[in-house]
Fold:
Amino acid sequence: MSTPQPPMPQTAAPDWQAAAPGSPYPTYTSPIPVVRTHLGHAISSEWTKIRSVRSTMWTLGVFVLLVVGIGLATAALVAANQAEDSLTGQNPLSFGVFGLLLGSMCIITLGVLTTASEYGTGMIRTTMTACPSRARVLTAKAIVFFAVAFTVTFASVLLVALADVAMLKGAKDPSGGDWLKGTFGISFYIALLGLLSLVVGSIIRHSAGAVTIMIGLVLAPLVIALFMFSSALEKVRQALFDYSIPNQLGAFYSNSLSDTGPTGWDPVWIALGVTAVAFAGAVALLQKRDV
Amino acid sequence: MIEAVGLTKRYGDKTAVYNLSFQVRPGAVTGFLGPNGSGKSTTMRMILGLDNPTAGQVTIGGYPYPKLPNAPRQVGALLDAKAVHGGRSARSHLLCLAQLSGIPARRVDEVLGVVGLQEVARKRSKGFSLGMGQRLGIAAALLGDPQVLLFDEPVNGLDPEGILWVRNLMKALAAEGRTVFVSSHLMSEMALTADHLIVIGRGQLLADMSVKDFISANSADFARVRTPDTEPQLREKLTSALTEAGGHVLPEQDGALRITGLPLPRISDIAHDADVRLWELSPHQASLEEAYMRMTQGAVDYRSTVDQKSGLMQPLPPGAQPPMPVPGQGQPDWYAPPPPQQGGQPFAMPQGQPGPYGAPGAPGAGQPNPYAQPAPAAPQTPAAPPQPPVSAASADLTKPEDAR
Structure:
């Protein structure tokens, strides 16, 4: 037979500290040394993550295939069919843009997957438990992804650029500035586009949704502008053309679709600004929302 | 040491957890029980800093989780086994977690050995069974060799060998002086593993006490008395004598008497004084499962009903009677709350409404049911809260004989 059990008091618990010496309760101390974690740990962790999933290999593989394949094919096609002097004054590096435009979809996808797939699988809860500093996790992801995306893009673009210069004899000799913009600059831009996708993935937390938004961002301005026939919308149409991402890509070879849009290194500054704002927004949301 | 004070979480206008205060002490396995949707997982997520509490706070060793210096070295958690990227191998998954908290990579192989996943360490976790996923989750929790461990439903999907392993693991971890906080629906498992229980229902604390106290406080412990079958008048005599002495007597179907409110020696004395011979005088304690069901029946959000299959029925020919559903079939029965003198109703639980299957049903009418056909109205003490009619507790659901 049981004895009467009074209700457990909820608040009148003894005031004690678990870690304090002389604690009435036993404590366990791990023999493994505890280190102070920093961004470096998060970066090595994200590097392990990005190289241990197949989607990285797939997206980057297709990216290289598109950029190098289409780049070389375009160069070969132009070289075979060029008329005398038809390429005079042309920047030979500019023939790499077609492959890059298609390839950017792969970088966008990889960027989105880097963050959004963790939400899709629930891995994010494990990650955020292992590293409660959410901004650190996002920063590490951004650094690792940017480094990977930039390296792969730069290597592919450089290969295509060298082939272009070698195959297209009639074109002008690209200056040092042309080389810098046409290889380093555009790779930086594509990697930034991927970084923006990563940030959007972190904000949207849904892979398909974020990929759709990013592809819309790349293509929609140009497509919308094509259907703006009315002269009243002429200015809007021109702005959409100028700042559409395909046109900004062209600016790196100074052969934009229009003459009024961003020139020189402008696209990089625009992309940097947009990405920085989005990143700040993503960090703020990350701190505020429940995982 | 986990300490929650006034923890509250609202999602829109739905309150998942309300004013929850409890402490989880080191050196013991603390079970965390509650019906589905009662806020167990939300509470666990708040402990781990994944969800921000709307009000109140929860600390581990005095710090909120995000403020802990190297949190994964102090707290390990298995939240759900599927919180893993399926495309990553078990080893890579653990390696990236180890790197994140500065744990040497050889520890990964150690914990893979501990949970028995060395063979499949390089296989993608997508192909893992539920049990293997649980083992991987437990490996991740053990990775930092932490002082505090949280497990949400750790034995889900494990085979009997795995369940035994988890049970011993929990006890071993607690014996080392760690804080072990485990949620589970498996009452039999909790009865074997946990030392202490925290029970919540609809996001509020229902109980915070040791397993033994919990069972005592929430079950109607009773004594069964059997008088010689051949002399029914002895039974009547004993019943009146016991009632006079302040006991509650419920006749059972097979002629035995169920007595509450009197200790065994007293029953024996009364019987002796009344000159009644006894064939049986035995103590009975309810199982943890019964005690739990009794406590949480008012707080269950998702209750199953009988599948009438009315949409699938052929229209009945005129004059035919529709088949009567068997009461209580496939249903958890209504558990009578403990009688007031058994420690009363320590918890302010919704009372008074009888269960949907409150009528005495006889599941398994063929075999003798020791609890079937109780007296509908036991004598009440004046101060007692209104008590729903005592219903039949089906023998297959509750196993009061083997206490714990």
In short: Chain A touches chain B through 55 residues (CB under 8 Å). Confidence is low (pLDDT under 50) at residues 1-22 of chain A. The radius of gyration of chain A is 26 Å. DSSP finds ten helices and no strands in chain A.
